[in-house]
Amino acid sequence: MLITFKNYKNLLDYETDELLNLRNQDYIRNSSFDTKIIQKVEHLNWLKNLKNAEYFGVFLDGKIIGGTNYKISENIPIWGVFFDKDINPIVKVVCVYEFLNFVFLHFNKLYSYVKIDNENSIKFTKNFGFYQIYKKQDMITFTLTRNEWQEYKTKKLLKFVDTLKTKTKLDGDIYG
Question: At 170, is the pLDDT very low, low, confident or very high (cuts 50, 70, 90)?
Answer without folding.
Answer: low
